[in-house]
Amino acid sequence: LQVRLPEVVTALLVGAALAMSGVILQAVLRNPLVDPFSVGTSGGAAFGAAIAITMMPLGYAWAMGFGPTQVLAFIGALIAVAVVYWMGRVGGRTPVVTLVLAGFAVSTLMAAATWVVVYEGGRTATLLVWTLGSLANAQWSQLELIAPVIIGLGAVSLFFARDLNA
Description:
The protein has helices at residues 4-29, 41-55, 68-88, 96-121, 124-132, 140-159, 161-164. The protein has 166 residues and is an all-alpha fold. It starts with a helix and ends with a helix.
């Protein structure tokens, strides 16, 4: 109950969060082919994680299992999306096609930068394991923090289901 059940519940919640965020992203951009890789989010997160993995000691966590890797991954994703949005603006408007093309460009650059940072830092295996994901360290304390957020945002998104139906 203390080892496997948190992993199962985490897998369910993370899967639900990824599905909801994917649907919302596609609906907002009105393009069923859009995903986190095509708008730069994944590339930015990987780059932020690469910086943390090469600069910080492994296994370092601030609170509840979250540490610099998770924080820098989140910041990297936000910066990448901001850059994509800035690059995708044309004459005060943001056409979806331009946004997706900018996303592919930023994503490609972030992927290259990520592997340069990790290769030079000598931690390629660590980043590979991090990007593939693992539920091995799932803890109830982490679930207490993220479960209400995921469930709450899922409930809020249901109110916009008709508008989000592409």
